[in-house]
Design a protein that fits this description.
about 110 residues; mainly alpha; about 35% helix; globular
Length: about 110
């Protein structure tokens, strides 16, 4: 699978319009309806302290990277059956690539 190069600025706009209702991404941003996405890149699924994950997320054993985020963001409920993430997904390859480029910035250096 070839993932297109993402555009950080487009990813930021998409994140603000489609993700911030449920997620924060800033360090110490806290959990909302969804878990904080700070440090999500290279983190194991279902591991944010204080967030009530489903067993499906906790047991998925996914270490988030470009390839699996690209697939997950297309259809979260299909990728992790039993997740409570209530989001239909980003159907366009370019939008998923943009979101990934954006969230990869928000990690401990």
């Amino acid at each position: 699978m070839t993932i297109p190069e993402g555009d950080v600025a487009k990813g930021e706009k998409l994140f603000k319009t489609r993700c911030t209702q449920c997620h924060t991404i800033e360090k110490d941003g806290g959990n909302k309806q969804g878990p904080s996405l700070w440090n999500v890149y290279n983190r194991k699924s279902g591991q944010v302290p204080g967030f009530a994950y489903t067993a499906a997320n906790q047991n998925a054993g996914v270490i988030w990277n470009d390839d699996n985020l690209f697939e997950y963001l297309k259809d979260p409920k299909k990728y992790i059956k039993g997740t409570k993430m209530n989001f239909a997904g980003f159907k366009k390859d370019s939008e998923r690539a943009d979101i990934i480029a954006y969230i990869k910035q928000f990690v401990d250096k």
